[in-house]
Amino acid sequence: MTLLLRIFTFACLLSLAGCATIQPQRDQVNWQQERARLEQLTHWQLSGKMAIITAQQKGSARVNWRQDGDDYRLNLSSIVGTHILELSRSKGEITLIDNEGKRHQSQDAEALVYQLTGWNIPVQGLPEWIKGLPGKAEFELNPDSSLASVRDGQWQIVYGDYRDQDGYRLPHLLTMEGQGSRLKLQINQWTIVH
Fold it and tell me: Which of 97, 147, 172, 174 has the fewest CB atoms within 10 Å, measured from its CB?
């Protein structure tokens, strides 16, 4: 067997192995059951990209989010990997480390992010919305009973793409509009922490 043929065979086996991990998509979900299960999902991580558009600026960032119960750590970096900010909540304390490594603390995560970046990011609602939960807000469902949209105060959230993973139907595309901002979050990878 020639080296080229071996490499080709190995590449085919790798692609087949990748295909084997894809989980079948459910045609329909039971909203009440799905909602109850998602509300119990309190430890997870995700990575993806976020586009942020305001009247004054357009930006994009890589997103890494880890949720541990009520605590979280959100890292935003530029597409080339430069640190933009790290926002964390630990035992009720909110800390933001800016792009110069300076530490800022506040009780209001959204105000802190806006003060340092000029971006309105709905940090308070995101842990729920990001999983496909409406919290206590008004919402509409898709024909398959997954969440289609949420209206929460000044924010409108529209869901574009869902995939089944580890028994959950999780969003992979959210568009959020409010407070003069439009955010598009594309989630590339979910990790459920058991």
Answer: 97
Strand partners, 67: 44, 72
Quote the CA–CA distance of 74 and 86 in Å, as a whole number. Answer: 6
Is the entire prediction scored with pTM above 0.85? no
**Residues 103, 94: Cα–Cα separation, whole Å:** 10
Q: CA torsion sign, 105 to 110 to 115 to 118?
A: positive
Q: How far is residue 47 CA from its own chain's centroid?
A: 7
The DSSP-derived string for 130-155 is TTT--TTSEEEE-TTSSEEEEEETTE
Structure tokens at 143: 């024909």
- Type of residue found at 115: Q
Distance of CA 90 to the CA centre of its chain: 19
What is the full per-residue pLDDT of the chain (194 aa) written as tens digits? 443 334 433 433 334 334 334 456 677 889 999 999 999 999 999 999 999 999 888 999 999 999 999 999 999 999 888 999 999 999 889 999 999 999 999 999 999 999 988 889 999 999 999 999 999 999 999 999 999 999 999 999 999 999 999 989 999 999 999 999 999 999 999 999 87
Q: Tell me how far apart the alpha carbons of residues 67 and 193 are, in angstroms, rounded to a whole number.
A: 9
* DSSP label at residue 125: T
